Amino acid sequence: MTSEPLNTFNIFNVNPDPNEILSKKKLHDTEGKVNLIKLFKYSDWIDLILLIIGIISSIGNGIMQPLMMVLVGDMVDNYNYTSENNSMIDEEVNHMIVEEVKESVNKVVVKMVYFGVISMVLSFMRTFSLFVVSQREGIRVRKLYFKSLLRQDATWYDFQESGELTTRIATDIKNFQDGIGPKFGMIFQIFSMTITGYIIGFIKSWDLALVVLATVPLSCFSFTGFQMVAMKYETKALSVFGVAGSIAEETIGNIRTVQSLNQEHKFSEEYEEKIKENEHFNAIKGQCFGIGFGFSTFFTYATYALGSWYSNIAVRGKGGSKGVSAGDVLTVIPDIDCQSTVGECPNECNGNIKFEDVQFVYPTRPSHQVLKGLDLEIKKGETIALVGTSGCGKSTTIQLIQRNYDPNSGKITIDGKDIRELNIKWLRNQIGLVGQEPILFAGTIRENIILGTREGETLNEEEDD
């Protein structure tokens, strides 16, 4: 009775040579870098499917990040809209603006949640699929590596260090797995994120995108150059580390012979020499990585500074153009001219107010109709109260009586006369308004009270008291 080995994870049960490469071609010693395609030459169809899933997920995850920044920008724009328009005196308009901003922000937040969930799923798919690919490839390459070692003849072994060969199983294959694992997907993620970011940048502000693009070649060349030098020294460090491992393995494996010959010090010095060489190469590699990363960080912040500087210039330029166009205000005749002397000025005002089928929407929010066919009659001496939720038109009704706005349709009359036919100064002098919140201008209380007197009237001491 025979027992078969138990596979704890079937997806890692791989065919050591699915493409039958070893049976087709005799192995030869090769030097130099391996291109990207050769990294996956031992892959089967399962590996290729997982690899495609990982690459697509990486690209999708890279696209999501710039889109998330667009949503953050939309949210900031909504709050800027509130701060710019919240200085209006009309409380009802302010309330509508705040509600509209809340609604817009809520929509942005919902989109951000959706994007976050999509990004989480894509990140999981990228990490899982590429990790499985790296493990399957690592298992397969280890089997092929060991099988290849057994195929070599004695002449080939005469030129190799046996200890170095076994050490490379742990170091080289681990690096190989790191190179085709989740880190491999980061290449596509960063690439898609960069491309998407610049596409959005050119759509939003092509001139600013061109300005910040100027520092990208400097950042890429500096980082890539130092990284290439660092990788060269990393290869040397790995080679020396393999030799050191070979010395340690041979010494420990033949420790009785070494001790009988009193050569412990000699082998210790050889091992220490190789370790120092490895440390030296790693130190140079670390310096190269550090300098490259430092230059990359410098150019990144330089990009921020350059973008802020150009944005400031652009905003000043746009502000200047707006200042020029603001001069056109001098020639604009408003529909409701508070300085106009035109209009009827009756000798008396009884105060009979009537709204007849009044329709009204604010110009800043044309989609929201505040008053829909309001019919209201207020007779002389009557006291009425308008009750309702915020935004239902209470303050708007007062605004229309004061002629801060004109209704879109219908009419408002006082003592049977359309208020649009009355002199606006005379009309507003007949109205006393106490706002929900007191508004005081700079100065004394007496000076604020005098602002409400009619032209030519004075405030005597008794009234002042």
UniProtKB/TrEMBL annotation:
GO cellular component: mitochondrial inner membrane
Membrane topology classification: Multi-pass membrane protein
EC number of this enzyme: 3.6.3.44
Presence of keyword Disulfide bond: no
Domain ABC transmembrane type-1: 52-333
Subcellular localization, as worded in the UniProt entry: Membrane
CDD domains in the record: ABC_6TM_Pgp_ABCB1_D1_like (cd18577)
GO BP annotation list: oligopeptide export from mitochondrion
Keywords: Glycoprotein, Hydrolase, Membrane, Repeat, Transmembrane, Transmembrane helix, Transport
Protein name: Multidrug resistance protein, putative
Lineage: Eukaryota, Amoebozoa, Evosea, Archamoebae, Mastigamoebida
